[in-house]
Amino acid sequence: MKQKTALISGAGIAGPAAAYWLNAAGWQVTIVEHAGAPRDGGYVIDFWGLGYDLAERMGLLNEIERVGYHARELRVIGDRGERLAGFGTKVFDELTGGRYVTLARRDLSRLLLAKAAPVAEMIFGDEIVMLQHDPAGVTARLRSGPVRRFDLVVGADGLHSQVRRLAFGPHEQFEKPLGYAVAAFEARHYQRRDPDIYMMHTKPGRMVGRFTLRDDRSLFLFVFTYDGARPATLEQQKTLLASLYRADGWEIADILQRLDEVQELYFDHVSQVVAPTWSSGRSVLVGDAAFCPSLLAGQGSALAIVAAYVLAGELARAEGHIEEAFAAYERRLRPYIATKQAGAARFASAFAPRTAFGVWFRNLVIQSFAIPGLAKLAVGREMIDRLRLPDYRLGPMPSTMERRTSDPG
């Protein structure tokens, strides 16, 4: 039997995960990525749940723990640097059985790429510009010129997915703005360092956070209410941030000075993706391209790995019946994803409440998490994954995952 072929757009999180699991299911895989090299910079993510379990099954757990961080406190800071509120993060370990880590998104991406590279053709600095479906497969044209045939195309290219635009329609049909924007950058040799503490300073409608990284690096995150167009250039983005934050207290003067020096800044709207279907012809979406819960939700990377695994598993089960596999993939994941997106929408406003009363009340809630049991009660529903994943027999299963994956079908 001829080996099935898949073209995957995107080399972030969902793309390499899909390549790994599709290869395990018997597919020949090609990854195409618009960027010329694996992306650097960005932000840190919290990683737990079923995505963590699948990363263990991929043999990544030791490396993830090596490059990751175990933050011990979230601390809200006032204008003069005083502690206004905070809580210890031990509750997250209790809820996940210690299977919870914070790490740079780029580090997780690089680990996944290292797993995908031996089993996938990798094309960087190119992108899909045309897709043509027919009953037998998909014809794809790359920007560099080649036209190639595949049995299916996987859109794993994030919030602004090119595959979604080509195969499903304009971005505006699927993106649901939450009324915020986010920016992030890293700086070296920042004088103030608070290892394993996430520091955040909030004014009505805006927040800035600082997290200490290894190698004398610090990460800065801005979250703010914003409905305007995304500034087109780096300098325009810096100007916007400075105009919003320059009058704030705490360390903002020093942070803006470091911002002025950087040449790489992550900047985007905070949005969800809500698509009525995740497949069209022989194109299918995974991760943020299909169901972005929003950057502030903290679960997008784990959900992308889960989706990649389920897609590959259902394709293996369907034995070549691609439409049947796509339908089973959606049936299994849609209710789970809908729950995650609803929780993420509720959570977004906690970063940057829009009013002074909202900031005060948010701080009061955070401070109350110090009461034994209250934090577990408040966040337990969002932290614990209720979905049971089938064992599709795609690869080795550590004993820890066997205990979590008991659904036979």
Describe this structure in words.
The strands form four sheets. A seven-stranded mixed beta sheet has the order 5-4-13-14-15-12-16, with helices on both faces. A six-stranded mixed beta sheet has the order 7-2-1-11-18-17. Strands 8-9-10 form a three-stranded antiparallel beta sheet. It has helices at residues 14-24, 49-57, 61-67, 90-96, 105-116, 162-167, 234-245, 252-261, 288-291, 300-318, 322-348, 356-368, 374-383, 399-404, and strands at residues 5-9, 28-33, 44-48, 73-77, 83-88, 100-104, 120-124, 128-134, 137-142, 147-150, 152-155, 175-188, 197-203, 206-213, 217-225, 266-273, 279-280, 283-285. With 409 residues, the protein is of the alpha/beta class. Residues 397-409 have low confidence and may be disordered. It has a domain at 5-70 and 100-174 and 272-349 and 387-404: 3-Layer(bba) Sandwich (FAD/NAD(P)-binding domain).
